[in-house]
UniProtKB/TrEMBL annotation:
<protein>
    <recommendedName>
        <fullName>Small ribosomal subunit protein uS15</fullName>
    </recommendedName>
</protein>
<dbReference type="InterPro" id="IPR023029">
    <property type="entry name" value="Ribosomal_uS15_arc_euk"/>
</dbReference>
<dbReference type="InterPro" id="IPR000589">
    <property type="entry name" value="Ribosomal_uS15"/>
</dbReference>
<feature type="compositionally biased region" description="Basic residues">
    <location>
        <begin position="1"/>
        <end position="10"/>
    </location>
</feature>
<feature type="domain" description="Small ribosomal subunit protein uS15 N-terminal">
    <location>
        <begin position="1"/>
        <end position="60"/>
    </location>
</feature>
<comment type="similarity">
    <text>Belongs to the universal ribosomal protein uS15 family.</text>
</comment>
<dbReference type="Pfam" id="PF08069">
    <property type="entry name" value="Ribosomal_S13_N"/>
</dbReference>
<dbReference type="GO" id="GO:0022627">
    <property type="term" value="C:cytosolic small ribosomal subunit"/>
</dbReference>
<dbReference type="Pfam" id="PF00312">
    <property type="entry name" value="Ribosomal_S15"/>
</dbReference>
<dbReference type="GO" id="GO:0003735">
    <property type="term" value="F:structural constituent of ribosome"/>
</dbReference>
<dbReference type="GO" id="GO:0070181">
    <property type="term" value="F:small ribosomal subunit rRNA binding"/>
</dbReference>
<dbReference type="GO" id="GO:0006412">
    <property type="term" value="P:translation"/>
</dbReference>
<feature type="region of interest" description="Disordered">
    <location>
        <begin position="1"/>
        <end position="26"/>
    </location>
</feature>
<comment type="subunit">
    <text>Part of the 30S ribosomal subunit.</text>
</comment>
<keyword id="KW-0687">Ribonucleoprotein</keyword>
<dbReference type="InterPro" id="IPR012606">
    <property type="entry name" value="Ribosomal_uS15_N"/>
</dbReference>
<keyword id="KW-0689">Ribosomal protein</keyword>
Amino acid sequence: MARMHARCRGKSGSVRPHRTEAPVWSTTDSTEIEKLIVELKKNEKSTSEIGLILRDRYSVPDVKLATGKRINAVLKENGLASEIPEDLRNLIVKALRMRKHMGENKKDLLNKRQLQLTESKVRRLVKYYVGSKKLPAGWVYKPDTAEILLSR
């Protein structure tokens, strides 16, 4: 599959093996896993970091196979889910860093182009999340108010 803003194809990544149930060697106590997820979120870890920590430290290869729910579903049940999806938040943070750099380096044309591409990805993701009702209907990305939005 080709890249979004480049003509190159790139290398494909690895794929997890298809499983319908958790492996025998894995930790499968669902209540313990859910407690770990809540505890890690309270320590300000993102959902992807939580998944990596559970995989590496607690031998949980797949949270959904072990608990029957995804990490976001567990966080939503406990009232800890974030308002903005993680991938959108990461792109907004990246755009803010680029805007700060542009403020200091006005003639950096490469950064200017990358900022345009990043903000177009943000707008595309916002359109998707508004359509899938993960964001409210009138939600719009504005670079001026993005920093205030992330501080909540």
